[in-house]
Amino acid sequence: MKNKWLINMAEIKTLVIDGEMLDARDSQSRLKSYGYSSIMERKLRESEKWQAATLNSIGDAVIATDEKGIIKIMNPFAEALTGWSKDDSVGKPLNVIFNIINDKTSTEAENPVLKVMREGAFFGLSEHTALITRDGIEIPVEIIGAPVLDDWNRIIGIIIVFYDILGRYKMEREFFFGKA
After folding, report:
1. Are residues 96 and 17 part of one domain?
2. What is the pLDDT of residues 150-166, one digit of tens each?
3. Rounded to the nearest 5°, which phi and psi values hold at 177?
4. CA distances from 157 to 2, 37, 66, 133 (A)
């Protein structure tokens, strides 16, 4: 019995799995089963909770889509800026929820998903981009886009980060033209 361990099963009360102490017995003192799938499911749930908490803590508006531009994730800041709830947005095409225009010409701005698919990451869609909210309010925004890549560097999604720059516009006008 070289390299074999014999354990008195009656003495086991706790197990340590991945650094976490777990009860080894149920309420009737029977040994619990911690199979690979139950451990992986628990780790996946923990990871998803951590990712959601991180996304919700980011101070900018964030929308994530699949490679076709269908919204998968939206944080509270994106909900506030667009006027659309996450529940109403997930599953819809980005251009339905994220309606952007050139605020000088009032023409439709380039779809950020198409820009990322064509060019990869970008910083600033154009100098005069405005978001049209669900209520029809025009808000000047700065937009950053980046691809989400799989292990083979294929684009499997797009991350769009955007923020309101109305305050910056006001400060620039005051600086160049004086207070109105």
Report:
1. no
2. 999 999 999 999 999 87
3. -115, 0
4. 51, 27, 4, 23
- pTM of the full structure: 0.70
92 contacts 70 by C-beta, under 8 angstroms: yes
Q: Which residues of 31-55 are buried (b: 16+ CB within 10 A; e: fewer)?
A: eeeeeeeeeeeeeeeeeeeeeeeeb
Three-class SS state of 175 = helix
Question: What's the one-letter identity of residue 73?
Answer: I
Residues 15 and 43 in one domain: yes
72: helix, strand or coil: strand
Give rounded-to-5 percent helix, strand, coil for the chain: 35, 30, 35
Read off the DSSP letter of residue 10: G
Residues in the chain: 180
Contact assessment for residue 138 and residue 131, using Cβ atoms and an 8 Å cutoff: yes
CATH number of the structural domain spanning residue 165: 3.30.450.20
pLDDT in tens, 108-132: 998 999 989 898 888 777 778 999 9
Contact 31, 126 (CB under 8 A): no
Write down the H helix ranges in 14-75: 36-57
Nearest alpha-carbon partner for 62 in 133, 131, 156, 159 = 159
Q: How many structural domains is the chain composed of?
A: 2
Contact at 8 Å (CB) between 157 and 115? no
